[in-house]
């Protein structure tokens, strides 16, 4: 006797994008194509998995089941055999996975080492650049110091020149110069007077060496001294 | 009134369907509600039934997981479950069936011995889960677990299939089961 079985169905709509939460507001419009992408990728993975399951069922159904009616114990023995085979296949798979993982590990370790080397070299480069910068700074400082010194020398020179010029323009010098000029004029006049005296006296001054010397001396132009 | 077959229909896109079979309507409804509240990226469909076979008139999607709920307090539930199991296609027992025993917390009310359900699960080579569906927190945790199980059975998790999961779960079972 079969009882009338009741059936009720309850459903729940999916959260697109996979995050359980309130529905997205208008501000998240930019995120929707990405959600669609993730949804599509998820559907693709699901369909792949389901296809795999169907394929394996088809393959399993192609196997021939034994026609004879075997005893229960034999059936159980066969079941155990098959289970053992499955276990062996699984362990072989696990070993392969471990081997691959170890290779992967090696690669990762190498990558890590290389990264460390890169970081060290970068650090060294940084230090050298800093040193270069220091040397350049020092050179700049030295240049500036030498510039200052030269400037000082120039100002000193200029000052000296100015002093000299100012000195020349001072009144004392002028007075002395005036005096000198008057003296020179007086002496020149005296020279001319003596010259004319000696020449006027009509003496032969070439014969007497002392007289000759005096006359020649009188010829000296005092302004040239 | 034909037997349920696991792969006779094409799966719905992003949909996973679970069938809860048991005599305790209130418990099933509560469990269904907890499952629908759980976090899941796929669409969930929960069908409830008192016993198999299901009426053919209803157009239902492909069922990915069947959970038989046995209440340890009542012998009727165990009987009904055992009767329903005959109407199931053998292909279902490759990972798409699970047994859920409830009511083990209150030992004084238990009329079915724990070992009975254990033997039942062992005979059908299916996983057995224990949960007190009356307690809110346990129910929520079990609902989460069932949702994950359902996702794998529906093929939504790449790399793990129902059969794979079955052998994985069996590996962690108590080895003393073999003595039964």
Automatic annotation (TrEMBL), chain A:
Any single Pfam family the record assigns to this protein: CENP-H
Compartment(s) where it occurs, according to its Swiss-Prot or TrEMBL record: Chromosome, Centromere, Kinetochore; Nucleus
Cellular component terms (Gene Ontology): kinetochore; nucleus
Domain (Centromere protein H C-terminal): residue spans on this chain: 103-219
Entries under InterPro entries matching the protein: CENP-H, CENP-H_C
Keyword terms, alphabetized: Centromere, Chromosome, Coiled coil, Kinetochore, Nucleus
Entry coiled-coil feature ranges: 70-99, 128-170
Key word Coiled coil present: yes
Main location: nucleus
BP GO annotations: chromosome segregation; kinetochore assembly; mitotic spindle organization
Composition skew (Low complexity), residue ranges: 22-31
Disordered: region residues: 1-33
GO molecular function, one term: kinetochore binding
UniProt keyword Coiled coil, yes or no: yes
Family designation: Belongs to the CENP-H/MCM16 family.
Full protein name: Centromere protein H
């Amino acid at each position: 006797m079969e009882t009338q079985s009741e059936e009720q169905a309850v459903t729940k709509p999916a959260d697109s994008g996979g995050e359980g939460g309130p529905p997205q507001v208008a501000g998240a419009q930019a995120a929707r194509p990405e959600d669609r992408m993730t949804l599509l990728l998820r559907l693709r993975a699901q369909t792949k998995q389901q296809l795999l399951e169907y394929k394996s069922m088809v393959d399993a159904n192609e196997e021939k089941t034994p026609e004879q009616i075997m005893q229960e114990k034999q059936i159980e023995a066969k079941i155990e055999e098959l289970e053992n085979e499955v276990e062996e296949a699984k362990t072989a798979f696990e070993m392969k996975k471990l081997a691959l993982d170890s290779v992967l590990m090696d690669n990762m370790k190498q990558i890590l080492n290389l990264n460390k080397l890169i970081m060290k070299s970068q650090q060294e480069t940084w230090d050298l650049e800093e040193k270069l910068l220091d040397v350049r700074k020092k050179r700049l400082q030295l240049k500036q110091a030498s510039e200052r010194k030269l400037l000082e020398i120039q100002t000193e020179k200029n000052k000296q020149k100015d002093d000299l010029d100012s000195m020349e323009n001072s009144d004392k010098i002028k007075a002395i110069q005036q005096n000198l000029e008057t003296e020179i004029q007086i002496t020149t006049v005296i020279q001319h007077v003596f010259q004319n005296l000696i020449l006027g006296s009509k003496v032969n001054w070439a014969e007497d060496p002392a007289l000759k010397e005096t006359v020649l001396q009188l010829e000296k132009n005092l302004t040239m001294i | 009134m034909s037997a349920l077959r696991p792969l006779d229909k094409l799966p719905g896109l992003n949909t996973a369907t679970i069938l809860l079979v048991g005599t305790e309507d209130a418990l099933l409804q509560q469990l269904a509600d907890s499952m629908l509240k759980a976090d899941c990226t796929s669409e969930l469909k929960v069908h409830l039934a008192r016993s198999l076979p299901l009426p053919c008139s209803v157009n239902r999607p492909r069922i990915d997981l069947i959970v038989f709920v046995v209440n340890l307090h009542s012998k009727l539930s165990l009987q009904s479950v055992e009767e329903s199991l005959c109407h199931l296609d053998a292909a279902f027992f490759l990972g798409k069936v699970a047994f859920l025993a409830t009511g083990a917390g209150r030992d004084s009310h238990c009329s079915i011995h724990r070992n009975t359900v254990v033997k039942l699960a062992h005979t059908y080579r299916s996983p057995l889960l224990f949960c007190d569906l009356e307690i809110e927190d346990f129910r929520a945790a079990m609902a989460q677990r069932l949702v994950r199980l359902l996702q794998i059975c529906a093929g939504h998790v790449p790399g793990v299939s129902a059969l794979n999961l079955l052998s994985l779960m069996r590996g962690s079972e108590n080895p003393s089961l073999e003595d039964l």
